[in-house]
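Hi W., the NAP complex you wanted:
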Amino acid sequence: MTTAVIGVGNIGKGVITGLARGGEKLLIANRTDSKAEALAAELGEGVTAVSIDEAVERADTIILAIWFADQQKFITERGAELAGKLIIDPSNPIGFDDKGQVFRTVDDGVSSGQLNRDSLADGVKFAKAFGTLSADSLASGANKDPKVALFYASDENTAGQGAGNAGAKGEIDSEVERLISVAGFTPVKAGSIDEASLRIEVLGDLHPFGGLNGVDPTEDTAKELLAK
Ligand SMILES: NC(=O)c1ccc[n+]([C@@H]2O[C@H](COP(=O)([O-])OP(=O)(O)OC[C@H]3O[C@@H](n4cnc5c(N)ncnc54)[C@H](OP(=O)(O)O)[C@@H]3O)[C@@H](O)[C@H]2O)c1
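Structure:
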């Protein structure tokens, strides 16, 4: 399985660094190629900078670490080219007003995860993950004791099985959990995209910049919150 990260900004760099330190071989790509090349040179063997086209062609899993509006463009323009691949979406649909206050850029009650999922061509696999911590917490929070939990959501195997890691894992959830673990965190499934993506996106009740009020949850805390 080949993993690519597209976007090497704040969150992309955190995800790439965590995965690379955990031993994952990665393709990385960015709109400005030189930034991906510089990060690959910094991280050394195992991280290869490629063009976006090459990342899309070679990867089985693509972590799309770019802003929601750019994701929408990417997903719709690439269309069926992404069929068979797993897209992992860390986005939070927010902007900042002229006073620096955060506002959501999509309608109330709708998540960027739902909108991205609904924009995919047939046969593209999808999960929401790696967006539940700030870039700083992602960079500094790996491999703590106890480990910090990263919530994720997907539409695989959710029917009747509840959240919080219950039930057998399909290929999407297994791969998301593998990547979260490689990066030094504990994966906790929060539910399906419709049930959970709004909750695990920024300002949601399961996000540190929302209901968790700055707390990066452990696995126990995460499961307690889901059980409520
Ligand atoms: N920052 C956080 O703490 C945080 C936390 C959780 C989730 N997120 C989410 O993560 C995503 C990225 O946020 P960020 O803070 O990392 O943003 P950022 O620092 O502004 O980085 C965005 C990156 O995306 C690249 N990019 C934009 N369009 C692209 C395209 N079409 N193809 C390839 N690369 C493209 C940019 O390339 P250039 O270098 O060429 O501009 C830049 O490297 C957002 O959806 C955000 O909501 C962020």
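Residues 16 and 59 are 15 Å apart (CA to CA).

W.
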